[in-house]
Amino acid sequence: MKILNNYLLYSWFLLLISCSASENEKFQWTRFRGYDGSGIDSNWSTPVTWDSTDFRWKTRLPGKGNSSPVVWGSTIFVSSSDDERNIGYALAIDERDGKIIWKKEFKVTDLSMHVDNNLAAPTPAVDESQVYFIWYSKEKTNLTALNHDGILQWEAEFDGIECRHGGGSSLLLTDRYVVFTREQEDFSSLNSSWIAVDKHTGTTAWELQRESASANSFSTPLLVKMDNQAAQLIFASQAHGLTGVDPETGQIIWERKEMLPARVVASPIYSEGLIIACCKGEAVVCNLNLATNPSADILRYSLPRNVSPYVPTPIAVGELLFLFMDNGIVVCVNCATGDLLWKEKPAGPIYGSPVSVDGNLYCMTKEGKVIVIRANSTYQLLGIYELGEGSFSTPVMCRSGMVFRTFSQLMILENS
């Protein structure tokens, strides 16, 4: 009986730690588009109007980059690169004053890339003890874990990638693993795969071999946790359409290959039982609850090219779905039905993805303008503000305010 009681006490202790860590994670910005990939932050409040005096600090970064920052506590972690010298930078920056706490350099071998891409395109990921960076190249894919003080914990190497446009898929964390994609184009002799690595050791937990396509995908996977159901990793790619994978084993739970017939860049999102995913020329909204039934038609509706983003990831706020197009058009539809509510073009072309804070949408254009729109069924443009340099990045939140990353700078707009 004493042994049983000790076991129950220990189990309760582990559960308490797990729940505390999960709650704490919600106040951090741990990956691309926040702790759950939704892009929604309900903890802070950010101004909708401002001028240059409202920025706490602006810090110039070494090199340039397209990745978004991640945040744990008072530390911002971000990647940058000098593509001419094939050097990648991992940086930690103090959220309070913008000072660089540490900088680490990584040798990154040559990689064919789109003119708008660069070596520091993937967004890192962070948890309570480590920060993880990935560097894609033709020769190898390098995954690195550093503690928050910048000390190397482990380094894992995998085959490289061969493609026309370079790398871009960002990292995702489960409770135990770092998950990433390594997809090839069909002219490559290298294999495509999705990989999970143990966060503590850097050893491969599972690797799922995948097909290659004429256009490799850059989409970042999504971890979905629905009530009373096992968690799923959702992958989106041209080669396999939409796929649900067991995060612990890497086994395929379900797959719909026909869903995404072109290159996928935007990440899938989840909202109220629906998975929303985009490829070049189409967006699909699917019923996740039906996905495990192979005979079920999971497609709720699709959206045509003129209202479907290619690079920016959509965002769902309540019953509304907002889609920011590469050409700068912004669309609002009813998420459940697909009915168009409004379509406007507030500014120029967009590569970054929108986030929602306190009921307002923030997104950066390629020229470095911040668009602020009310997340509403009627169009309400709240402002357009210049950052002074172009950006392909996505805003993130920290305790001090909203963090913007331009090509070569990081800056904080203080909370209201």
Structure keywords:
416 residues, mainly beta, five-stranded mixed beta sheet, 1 helix
Describe the protein.
With 416 residues, the protein is mainly beta. 6% of the residues lie in helices and 41% in strands. The protein contains one helix and 33 strands. It has one helix spanning 2-25; strands at residues 40-41, 55-60, 70-72, 75-82, 87-94, 100-107, 125-126, 130-136, 140-147, 152-159, 172-173, 177-182, 192-198, 204-210, 222-224, 232-237, 241-245, 252-256, 269-271, 274-279, 282-287, 299-303, 315-317, 320-324, 330-334, 340-344, 355-357, 360-364, 369-374, 381-386, 396-397, 401-405, 409-414. The strands form eight sheets. Strands 1-27-28-29-30 form a five-stranded mixed β-sheet, with no helix packed on it. The chain has a four-stranded antiparallel β-sheet with strand order 2-33-32-31, with no helix packed on it. The longest helix is centred in the N-terminal third of the chain and has 24 residues, at 2-25. It is globular and about 60 Å long. Residues 1-21 have low confidence and may be disordered.
